[in-house]
Amino acid sequence: MTEDQILAEISKAITQIMSDKGLPAPTVTADTELLGGELPIDSLDLAMLVREMEERVGFDPFQDGFIDFRTAGEMAKLYVK
Amino acid sequence: MSGRRHVIVTGGSRGLGAAMIEGLLADGYRVSTCSRSKSAAIDKLSDLGGDDFFWQSAQVGEADQVDAFVKAAGEWAGEDGIYGLVNNAGVARTGILASFPNIESEKLIQINLIGAIQMARACSPYLLKREDGGRIINISSIIGARGYNGMSAYSASKAGMDGLTRALARELGRRQITVNSVSPGYVATEMSSTLTPPQMMQIVNRTPLGRLATEQDVFELVRFLLSDKAASITGQVILVDGGISC
Predict the structure, then answer these.
(1) Under an 8 A CB cutoff, do A51 and B175 touch?
(2) Which of B40-46's residues contact partners 24+ apart within 8 Å by CB, and which partners?
(3) Which residues from A are below 8 Å from B174, CB to CB?
(4) Chain A contact set for B176 (CB, 8 A)
(5) Which of B70, B134, B177, B229 is least surrounded by Cβ atoms within 10 Å, i.e. has the fewest?
(6) Which residue from B124, B129, B174 is facing A20, i.e. has the nearest CB?
(7) Residues of B acting as catalytic residues
(8) From A20, which residue of chain B is nearest by alpha-carbon distance?
(9) pLDDT tens per residue across span B14-73
(10) How far is it between the farthest Cα atoms of chain B?
(11) Between chains, do B174 and A48 touch, taking CB under 8 Å as contact?
């Protein structure tokens, strides 16, 4: 998958998480900060997002340890092989 | 969706695990379990549970096998997802630490503690998705809190499990997922093979109720903690020990 395709998958996954919480679909761009108030998600939602992306992309970039990321774009880069 | 609650109980091939599964099936839960290999108890549970029972071979402590098992159990349960996890799988090895092989300590911690962490991690996404909260119950041991001669590694693994209980209770509480340790005292299954008759008599004599707790006593607490009635109890280590620790 390309970085743009992965970003689209991140957006879909966040929309799904929001939907499960009864919240409207957010607009997610590469610059959207995942935590910090821009989106109504907390650290547990972020954990869910990471697991959901593993399902969607087929691997877990955090398998060998934590990697810092702040925005959706930075997260997407981690899934580009 | 059948609207039933699905609980994973690890280590269901014998002893307390098999007894708990039998009780949970009777209570109307759907139950999944894993063990290294099939046993007579698994065959019996398959007959008893029919479509409400799922077993797959997996070694708790091996992350890949744990993930594969939980995924398979989640798929088996379909829209029922996973409501509860009972971390019951464990091994007990005894020996004075000075001569206890390091490899045995590592194996024991890997199964008893790392295995419980792996299972909780694998089940968490399913629990977090639910609207009715969820349950994690760690089957610990009084030995985690009190220690016992010749059981250093085992005691450490159970004390670690109790730490896992408290930390996860804080982490998952916001989603109404409760996490508790059920800590049997000197119950038959775990200890009977390691205690001498005089040791056993001494324990019974020191127990306020004058008898050891049974597997059924332990199950009754697990049953309660899984129920909606226990929704406000989390982060606790509850002993079922006839009062010996009081």
Answers:
(1) no
(2) B41/B12, B41/B13, B41/B14, B42/B12, B42/B13, B42/B18, B44/B18, B45/B12, B45/B18, B45/B21
(3) 42, 44
(4) none
(5) B229
(6) B129
(7) 154
(8) B129
(9) 999 999 999 999 999 999 999 999 999 999 999 999 999 999 999 999 999 999 999 999
(10) 55
(11) no
pLDDT tens sequence across B128-166: 989 899 999 999 999 999 998 899 999 999 999 999 999
Alpha carbon distance B200, B65 (integer Å) = 37
| Residue B52 · residue B44 · CB < 8 Å | no
**Closest A-chain CA to B170:** A44
Other residues' Cβ atoms within 10 Å of the Cβ of residue B67:
17
Q: Which residue of B has its CA nearest to A49?
A: B125
Pick from B224, B217, B191: which is nearest to B93 by CA? B191
CB-CB: which of A44, A51, A52 is closest to B174?
A: A44
Query: In the structure encoding, which two tokens stand for residue B44, read together?
Result: 């019996």
Q: Which residues of chain B does A62 touch, with a Cβ-Cβ cutoff of 8 Å?
A: none
Read off the amino acid at residue B170: R
CATH number of this structure's domain B6-240, picked from the four choices 3.40.50.2300, 3.30.420.40, 3.40.50.720, 1.20.1540.10: 3.40.50.720
pLDDT of residue B10: 98
ipTM: 0.78
**Closest Cα to residue B17, out of B91, B108, B120?**
B91
pLDDT values of chain A reduced to their tens digit, one per residue, 81 residues: 999 999 999 999 999 989 888 899 999 999 999 988 789 888 899 999 998 999 899 999 998 888 999 999 999 999 998
* Residue from B7, B2, B43 nearest B25 by CA: B7
pLDDT for B224 beyond 70 = yes
Q: For chain B, which residues make up each domain, given as ranges?
A: 6-240
Show the domains of chain A with their CATH numbers.
3-78 (1.10.1200.10)
